[in-house]
Write a structure and sequence with these properties.
This protein has 19 helices and eight strands. It has 471 residues and is α/β, with parallel strands linked by helices. The relative contact order is 0.11.
Length: 471
């Protein structure tokens, strides 16, 4: 307890000059890795809804992908300083605490995780964040308080509104503070070179609630919280049927490609796919009661199909993309010819692929909530530790054996070599799955093509595909 009080007092004092400089330089580097290297594509939808720089702003987001959620917002709002609240237990180590604070992160103490006695620390920390808001900066808060393990929206606490109105009261209700609803959405939570999308909702002015708040603060906070949560829920994929979640999620990943195309969308374009997936689930919910027996068969069949494909180590997309013997042979020859280039690209980057594995394998072996930390741990370890170490050593070797120009050019190329090696690996695994598909088609996968066709045909007959059309 005393140790907590000491470091809270230290955080309240603010960041020093060295910390701020380190934070700016580090954020520039981490942002480059985030936008260009780690993700294949980064989308910003609704960017016009962001209030002008200098507007007191609280960004409220769903929370499904631990550190990656905060990073997506941090690097999406490049025109302003974003203060981010994150789990308090990350601040225990003094060195880690200094690094986190240099990135303008603050600890949030939670009753469920940190104990009732620690929640009072939030008062001082909220004052720090409140000053940031009133200075025209932004604060990011995840009101679900915990990271979800599914594509759904949890309950919202009202802590962010207490922060907002504490700052507003201290200002004498003179300044309008806005709440900006934001949704993080991913093509895949865990893998490297996937896609992330930040969807921005319309800002909500708190000034409209000032009169109500001064008379009935609890009612005002409750009303605003409902509006904010509804805005986020409307923008995101919120699969509320948790009893059938696994089946629905598998169907949106498989049948969802077909559904999106039939709605006029591009299933490979993440913003289209989000809207299509939302419409797909909405149609299922609307039709579930009137087609109860059919959906039981569909859901049971989807789980059977999923488990069988996993057992045979193949992916559903192979059913629609089966290679002819000639194409398979040509792709195999291509991989053989390019193998030396793969080794050349892999060797200087291999530590980046291997370093996170002891940690990520342990997280994957844990419960579903622990597994959601995989992407964040992989990004943090490679960006902050393994990458700088490996590339610095490589640069020193290049300078020693060649010269500075060779070293700098090689350094600039190394991340792209790593990306190419990853793509080669993906091509190899795809071909390997094709081989397994041919081998298991009459064995472990027997009957699965027919089952898949029946499921898809049933969905075609039930769903209208009129709830979303790409304009």
């Amino acid at each position: 307890m005393e140790e907590d009080k000491e470091y809270i007092s230290e955080l309240v004092k603010g960041r020093g000059v060295v910390s701020r400089i380190f934070g700016k330089v580090s954020r520039a580097y981490v942002g480059l890795m985030h936008d260009l290297i780690y993700y294949r594509n980064v989308y910003m939808v609704g960017k016009g809804n962001i209030p002008p720089a200098g507007t007191p702003l609280i960004i409220v987001s769903n929370h499904q992908n631990t550190l990656n959620d905060a990073l997506a917002v941090e690097f999406g709002f490049k025109d302003r300083d974003v203060c981010i609240f994150t789990r308090a237990d990350m601040f225990k180590n003094p060195v880690v605490r200094w690094i986190l604070r240099s990135f303008n992160l603050l600890p949030a103490f939670r009753y469920s995780k940190d104990g009732l006695e620690t929640v009072t620390y939030n008062t001082d920390l909220f004052q720090v964040a409140g000053k940031d808001i009133m200075a025209g900066n932004a604060v990011l808060i995840f009101p679900e308080a915990v990271n979800q393990d599914k594509r759904w929206l949890g309950n919202f606490s009202e802590g962010y509104l207490r922060l907002a109105f504490d700052a507003i009261e201290a200002d004498g209700f003179k300044t309008d503070v806005k709440i900006l609803p934001v949704v993080n959405h991913y093509s895949d939570y865990f893998a490297f070179r996937e896609e992330v999308m930040l969807k921005i909702g319309e800002p909500i002015s708190l000034k409209e609630y000032y009169e109500l708040y001064q008379k009935k603060p609890r009612t005002a906070r409750r009303n605003i919280n409902n509006v904010v949560r509804s805005s986020i829920e409307g923008m995101m994929l919120n699969i509320t049927d948790l009893d059938n979640y696994d089946a629905i999620d598998y169907l949106r990943l498989t049948y969802g490609r077909r559904y999106c195309a039939q709605c006029g969308g591009n299933s490979k374009y993440l913003p289209d796919r989000l809207e299509s997936d939302k419409a797909f689930f909405a149609e299922i919910e609307a039709a579930k009661e009137s087609h109860a027996d059919e959906f039981k068969e569909i859901f049971d069949g989807a789980i059977t199909l999923r488990d069988t494909c996993r057992k045979c180590k193949v992916k559903d997309e192979i059913f629609d993309n089966q290679l002819s013997p000639l194409k398979f042979t040509l792709q195999l020859l291509g991989l053989i010819v390019l193998f030396p280039l793969f080794l050349f690209s892999l060797i200087p980057n291999i530590l980046l692929f291997l370093a996170p594995m002891p940690f990520t394998d342990k997280l994957k072996a844990g419960d579903s909530h622990q597994a959601m930390f995989v992407g964040g741990v992989r990004f943090a370890l490679n960006t902050l530790f393994a990458g700088p170490l490996v590339y610095t050593l490589q640069m020193v070797a290049d300078v020693y054996f060649f010269n500075w120009w060779v070293a700098l050019i090689h350094l600039a190329c190394l991340p792209w070599f790593g990306i190419w090696a990853w793509k080669y690996r993906a091509g190899f695994l795809t071909l390997k799955r094709q081989w397994r598909f041919y081998r298991e088609r009459g064995k472990g996968l027997k009957g699965m093509e027919e089952l898949r066709t029946r499921i898809f045909n049933k969905l075609d007959n039930i769903l209208t595909k009129n709830t979303w059309k790409k304009e």
